[in-house]
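Ticket #4471: structure output looks truncated?

Reporter: J.K.
Steps to reproduce: submitted the chain below (352 residues) through the standard prediction queue, then opened the result file.
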Amino acid sequence: MSRTPFRRRIAAARVLLVAALATHAFGAHAQAGELLVGNKSADTLWRLSLADGRKLGEAPTAPGPHEIAVSPDGRQAVVSEYGRQSPGNTLGVYDTADGRLLRRIDLGTHSRPHGMRYQADGKRLLVTTEGSDALLVVDTAGKLERAIDIGPGKGHMVALSADGKIAYVSKVGAGTVVRVELADGSTLEKPAGGGAEGIGVATDGSVWVSNREDGTVTVHDPATLDVLDTLDSDGFPIRVGFTPSGRHALVTNARAATLAVFDTVKRTPVALVPLAKPGTVYRETMLGRAALPIGAIADPSGERVYVAISGGNEIAVIDTTTWTVVERWPTGDEPDALGIVESGAPVREEAR
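Returned output as attached by the reporter:
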């Protein structure tokens, strides 16, 4: 009896297994989603695979890309183009399917755009402009709809209430937080702390502000802005974010090169993650030659957190089970802003 058919069947099975494994691996990469990175000194927007950090694409921006906002449907990403020596006054709108620039929105006299937050309709964007002390409402199709005066003090970052009716703006110069009623533009302003910069709204509605000069995070009542709690976060706390479950608050301490993790219910420390790599010579930054972590964002799965190491031109990937750095992905020059395009985001017909 010939054994050739059996051998052929084994060989065919091996081919099918290899093909299946290759397809699975490709599918995992294709469906993992993407991390968007704004490289502030390189004036570029990079796309990295969330599966393994490999670079998927690069697009030029106007000078000084400072923040990134991804639309709720995942189709578009907007970059605030802050400028460098000369003030910038534009927003770059990019197609997340292929990374190309769709349009550039001119903000006119409203310069130094910085913090951004999409409204629930997915069409309008809230934008802080340091050059005009305003909170803008921008239709991302290309129209500036409205400018709300929030007063002097360098309005920097913006957060939004769960119902979309209230915006909260941190003022890094004044050390305050501003509550903005979007329906009529009325405002309420209260002290937060020296160098109030990072801001976010927790799942219970409380407003968290990182105060870089004071080394604290203040937790505010969403209606009155009264301080409910003050948490220590030493080393120039510069950003505030949350894990998808809302269980943990994430604070990057730029000077200390750490990520502070807090329990949002108990308002107590959970972990302090060292972000600097021993023996690394970092680039010159605004805080000297340092790692300088800035932007931080959690993976939609909740399993990882990504931190932009501005002085090291890399992303530190943190495992949220152990709260340790498990990978480092290269970026362009001076990464700062981060955004995530989730897997399964709708794909435009022309990009299929």
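Triage note (M.O.): checked the attachment and the full token line is present. The longest helix spans residues 4-31.
Status: closed, working as intended.
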